[in-house]
Design a protein that fits this description.
With about 575 residues, the chain is an alpha/beta fold. The chain has 23 helices and 10 strands. α7 links the parallel β6 and β7.
């Protein structure tokens, strides 16, 4: 009987295996398959890349279904070349190195910036005859083939004697050329060659260090670059976003576990000096941002474009925030407006024409306040106070709400606007002294209405832009727009011992809120495109036109309110 039961069990087991084997196989095939990515480093294994190693060895890449192969670089290898010959999907490179290597070839794109800051230095020895840029201009300089030489050339052309051309020598990564006195200068990293030169016996009193960024020569150090044409693939972009997510966690691990990071590097190259790698890691971590990891800084890039020579012109495709935006989406921190849009708004606000338009709007509002005070019989000081409150009061309340980034108030550091208000009030009162009946004319009333509408539109729009520039959540943009144009009116009415018009008759707040919502809608569209600054400008103009257009019919807005929202007469 036992044998019979055993036989039946065996048969039943076989049937169950046969029945479920296809399902198991299907489940295994349908499960997530690790995508293979090869990453080409720009230098030999060292703690410069600690985040990559920890993301690999602690299975952070695997957690995002990535099979990542980190390839060692070296002195004779340009990482960008690995993208073109198919050895790598991602390359770690400096910005200028990528720009130089891709010239005349299919474009490459920075999808994430790892280092924030400038680790590249030019190290010279005073004892070898170089203690200034002018002396360096005709010296022998040990420099890497990619990126470094362009930086030195631009620095020399900017500050050195005319027609000066440094003589470049190849260099290794140990600073031996400078230590042994074979060349008077080398390019090197603050976390690597600098310390090796010091350890090699060169006294700090003999070492002269030049930071090219101090002289306006801009570069980005380690960034992640890919072939631009591959970004058309949604699947590849998704893999890149997962890669950046895992890499950020890898650098977080390196920050919290120095010993583990050093051991990970030593497992790849046991010949490395443990203590030196620890010192290098501490220097490297100062370059890794703890916030906005991977974000390519557009303000720095804009400075590069303005300062660079024509032969160093960078194409629009050299950077993208698309992958960074995807990363924010994976984190649940979808950024609206995008960093690109915020940069364009900031750029518009810094334009001289925008500043003069804002000054004009503020003066229009102050003149309207002055006329309001004059009609109620106020003297010079009263008119000046009301004019100042009308144009500066709302912005002051807004800036207090935003906080330290807007303090101290701009008009306390730059007296142009207060001085202009003083002159305007003086001229206005002199005008009424000469023409006391001018306020009875139809033209006067039309002019006052124009001043009020124009001033309101400009100040409300400026308030919305300041909220965007201050990186406040988008929901605060309408609030800041409304405060900017009505806060001064509230203060004016309080000082004049009147009920605030904003709570009963005026509908400035509604127009400011609606206009800022129009602006936000335009910026949402602009966020779908990069390198399309005209969309941001167009959104700004449409929002201003909307607010100006609704100003005349402002009293009609209340008709659409529910009865319980309407002010009682």
């Amino acid at each position: 009987m036992k044998h019979l039961l055993s036989g039946w069990r065996a048969i039943l087991s076989a049937l169950l295996v046969a029945a479920f084997a296809p399902a198991v196989a299907t489940a295994q095939q349908d499960g997530p398959v690790n995508a293979k990515l090869a990453v080409q480093l720009s230098w030999y294994h060292q703690t410069q890349y600690a985040g990559f190693y920890l993301a690999q060895y602690e299975s952070l890449f695997a957690a995002y279904h990535l099979d990542v192969n980190v390839l060692q670089g070296g002195s004779g290898l340009n990482p960008i070349d690995a993208l073109y010959d198919g050895r790598a999907d991602i390359a770690v490179s400096s910005f200028r190195g990528a720009l130089t290597a891709s010239r005349g070839r299919p474009p490459v794109t920075n999808i994430a910036q790892i280092f924030q800051g400038n680790p590249l230095k030019i190290l010279c020895r005073a004892s070898l005859g170089v203690s200034s840029v002018q002396q360096m201009a005709r010296s022998h300089i040990g420099a890497a083939l990619w990126g470094d030489r362009d930086i030195v050339r631009e620095l020399v052309q900017t500050l050195g004697p005319q027609n000066a051309e440094p003589i470049f020598e190849s260099r290794e990564g140990n600073g031996a050329e400078l230590i042994e006195g074979r060349v008077p200068c080398i390019t090197g990293m603050s976390y690597n060659e600098y310390w090796k030169v010091i350890e090699g016996g060169v006294p700090s009193s003999d070492l002269v260090t030049f930071d090219h960024s101090d002289y306006g020569v801009i570069d980005f150090s380690d960034g992640l670059y890919v072939r631009t044409d591959r970004l058309k693939s949604a699947e590849f972009r998704a893999q890149l976003a997962s890669f950046v997510m895992a890499l950020e966690k890898g650098w977080q691990e390196a920050r919290s576990q120095h010993s583990v990071a050093v051991e990970a590097v030593l497992s790849l190259d046991p010949n490395l000096d443990r203590n030196f790698q620890r010192v290098m890691l501490e220097s490297v971590l100062t370059l890794i941002p703890q916030k906005n990891f991977g974000l390519f800084d557009l303000e720095t890039f804009d400075r590069f474009r303005k300062a660079s020579r024509r032969d160093m012109a960078a194409p629009d495709t050299i950077w993208t925030h698309a992958v960074w935006n995807d990363v924010q989406g994976l984190k649940g921190d979808g950024d609206f407006p995008t960093e690109t849009v915020k940069f364009e708004v900031r750029k518009l606000r810094s334009h001289p024409l925008f500043k003069w338009v804002f000054y004009a709007g503020a003066l229009f509002f102050s003149l309207s306040g002055c006329l309001y005070a004059k009609a109620r019989g106020y003297n010079f000081w009263g008119c000046l106070l009301i004019a100042g409150l009308a144009s500066l009061g709302g912005g002051s309340i807004r800036d207090l709400l935003i906080g330290p980034s807007r303090l101290p108030f701009e008009y306390t550091d730059h007296l142009l606007l207060p001085a202009s208000i003083l002159i305007l009030v003086t001229l206005t009162l002199v005008f009424f002294r000469l023409f006391p009946q001018a306020n009875q004319s139809f033209s006067y009333k039309r002019a006052q209405s124009f001043l009020e509408a124009t001033g309101f539109t400009i100040i409300a729009t400026n308030g919305a832009c300041i909220a965007l520039d201050s990186s406040m959540p988008w929901s605060w943009v309408p609030i800041c727009a409304a405060l900017s144009c009505t806060g001064g009116g509230l203060l004016r009415d309080i000082f004049m011992n009147e009920e605030p018009h904003s709570f009963k008759k005026s509908s400035f707040e509604e127009m400011a809120v609606l206009g800022s919502l129009v602006l936000l809608a335009g910026l949402w569209v602009a966020g779908k495109y990069e390198n399309r600054s005209f969309i941001v400008l167009l959104s700004l103009l449409v929002a201003m036109g909307f607010m100006a257009g609704t100003f005349r019919s402002r009293s009609q807005l209340a008709r659409y309110y529910p009865s319980w929202l309407k002010a009682r007469r």
